[in-house]
Design goal:
Elements (H helix, E strand, L loop, with lengths): L1 E4 L6 E4 L2 E4 L2 E4 L4 H8 L7 E8 L3 E7 L6 E7 L1 E8 L10 E7 L5 E4 L3 E7 L3 E8 L8 E3 L22 H4 L12
Antiparallel strand pairs: 1-2, 2-10, 3-4, 5-12, 6-11, 6-13, 7-10, 7-12, 8-9, 8-11
Length: about 180
């Protein structure tokens, strides 16, 4: 397994070692011991989520304030541009974002620690995203940071496309007004 830091050191890109031949492939997508030792993820995962989206769908940027979720994200069909925004006021990277292309082909994973907003843009015709979370989803605690906030200024690779965004995500909060973590 290869582990790389992004421009935000706590957000990690994980590339599992894949064993393949003419029959197909096998790779270890998660091992508590290895991910603790090699990535520094020392959390218990309590929930797995599976999302399917059409091309140009943009989901996020979501987070929970009272019970923040760490997320281990991967794509099993298609390709997405996955984004994490640091909302920890005590962090040197507060307000900055990191992004990575995750695809079924590259098998990369993105570790998004608690204290971050998370979202993704589907870059293929459709995509399926799996992610493990360190806390249970609580819809009453979910907050949405505006995907197009000019302060955060995520550089979404839209390439002239207009993203498809839910009403809830269209009503995301500006960074300056968003509740953050200490």
């Amino acid at each position: 397994m290869q582990v790389r830091s992004t421009n935000i050191p706590d957000v990690k890109i994980i590339e599992p070692k894949c064993f393949g031949d003419e029959r197909g492939f096998l790779f270890e997508s998660y091992s508590a011991r290895r991910y603790a030792d090699e990535v520094g993820i020392r959390y218990d995962f309590v929930q797995d989520n599976h999302s399917r989206s059409r091309g140009s769908v943009l989901r996020g940027l979501h987070y929970q304030l009272k019970r923040p979720q760490g997320k281990l994200v991967r794509t099993i069909v298609g390709e997405v541009f996955d984004v994490a925004v640091d909302l920890r006021r005590s962090s040197a990277t507060f307000g900055r974002w990191a992004g990575e292309i995750l695809s079924a082909e590259n098998r990369r994973q993105l570790w998004v620690p608690p204290g971050f907003a998370h979202g993704f843009l589907v870059m293929s015709d459709d995509a399926e995203v799996l992610y493990k979370t360190t806390e249970y989803y609580d819809p009453s605690d979910e907050i949405c940071l505006a995907w197009d906030d000019p302060t955060v200024a995520v550089e979404w690779p839209l390439d002239g496309r207009v993203p498809t965004i839910s009403e809830r995500d269209c009503a995301g909060m500006d960074f300056a007004k968003s509740p953050t973590f200490s």
